Amino acid sequence: MRTKGQLSIEFMIYVAMATASLVVSLRLFTIGTAAQGVSIGNAYSEELAAAIDANMGYSSSAFSAYVPRSICNATIGDGYIRIGGSLLELDSNLTMADGSVCRNSGGVERLLLYRVSNDTFELSGSVP
Question: How far apart are CA 94 and CA 123, in angstroms?
Answer without folding.
Answer: 7
